[in-house]
Amino acid sequence: MIQVKDNVYWLGLKDWDLRRFHGHELSTHRGSTYNTYLIRDEKTILVDTVWTPYQNDFLDILEKEVGIANIDGIVINHNEPDHGGSLGALMERIPNVPIYCTKRGVDSIKGHFHMDWNFVPVKTGDKINIGKSDLIFVEMTMIHWPDSMMTYVTGSNVLLSNDAFGQHYCPKTIFQDEADECEVYQEAFKYFANILAPLTPLIRKKIAEVKALNLPVDVIAPSHGVIWRKNPMQIIEKYDLWANQYDEGFVTIVYDTMYNATKKIAEAIAKGIENAGGSCKLFNSSTSDISDILTELFRSKGILLGSCTVNNGYLRSLSGIVHEIKGHKYKGKKGAAFGSYGWSGEAPKRLSEGLKDAGIQVDLEPISCIYQPTPADLEKCTRFGQEFAKSLL
Ligand code: FEO
Predict the structure, then answer these.
(1) Nearest to residue 330, comparing CAs of 219, 274, 221, 252?
(2) Do residues 101 and 87 make contact, with C-beta atoms less than 8 angstroms apart?
């Protein structure tokens, strides 16, 4: 157990091995942590549990550090199994202890465990006294599940933010000021880009609501990764920035290729973008990690998708990209499509339609080259890149 501040302690688990999360959807190159917190006041309150596979380790830690019978209440800020997963095993030991969660949290816990425990539904502004401190609850509906909420501890001024402000990152210590800042921000941004990007309108509204509460915040303690202890408001300011049609002005080109014709086109377009004073990053979607690609797309102003044509469409690695772009509901980005073909040539048109369907502004007609591009074709692609770069200004 590590003291976070005053009466708030961390007793989570570090998962150095984790490489995929949400099933296999999200890559987690630097592992993750399942942060749970204990508030030791006149009452002893546990905030969240850990992912189900670690429930036995977690109960052992709880027994050794706290004594499970000494727990007076459990707050479940969010019942996704990486936080609520050990609740079933814990409640077998203390079945009558109250569980504080949102109304949607009650639904979620009942839906996962099919048990009718001693639920105490709470909503934004509700407060419970646990001795010197009060716990104040703030609903975070759909950020990112219906049940999500945060818990604020008065006196120690610690905001237990659950998934918000977290990172899938296993650090050497749990404090941000003792971790590599570059790694922390890479993972915090990736988390935002991959999990929270579709929710930016809600996030902007919620940040304004939380600021309006005027609660002094000394520490922000999320459920994954490091605890923000030094200038904790920095991550709230970053969320405010990232949630406002964020981009860094460059272009990301994502392509797949069979015999390098589409790759050559991608590189010729990249040359055109650079000639026009722009900058770009290129990814082959069949060999790159899709979570990393989505991170780059989120920070891009321009999105170019390319594929050769196969079976009257584009290569399958682009399907996942088009699907995710639509799901992530990007705002304020421009896109275009390109590709090579041998006979029918539908891929660029389909990619262009996919971008439009995803809400991306597409002004340029897609560009195609038959078989291997000639020097003249590549010159045309370079001009296409220049034109696209100028359209971003
Ligand atoms: Fe929404 Fe960390 O789970």
Answers:
(1) 252
(2) no
Catalytic residue among 83, 144, 168, 328: 144
Give nearest CA residue, ligand 1 atom 2. Answer: 163
Spacing, Cα 289 to ligand 1 middle (Å): 21
Give the residue whose CA is nearest to atom 3 of ligand 1: 80
d(CA 37, CA 159): 11
Residue bearing tokens 């060999």: 287
Q: For the segment 25-82, what is each residue's pLDDT rounded down to a tens digit?
A: 999 999 999 999 999 999 999 999 999 999 999 999 999 999 999 999 999 999 999 9
Q: Is the peptide bond before 323 cis (omega within 30 degrees of 0)?
A: no
Q: Is the CB of 224 under 6 A from ligand 1?
A: yes
| Distance (Å) from CA 79 to ligand 1 centroid | 8
- Please state, in angstroms and as integers, the Cα–Cα distance from residue 340 to each residue in 114, 171, 282, following that order: 54, 44, 17
Using CA atoms, how far apart are residues 209 and 54, in angstroms rounded to an integer?
Answer: 35
191 in catalytic set:
yes
- Closest to 125 measured CA to CA, from 144, 89, 152: 152
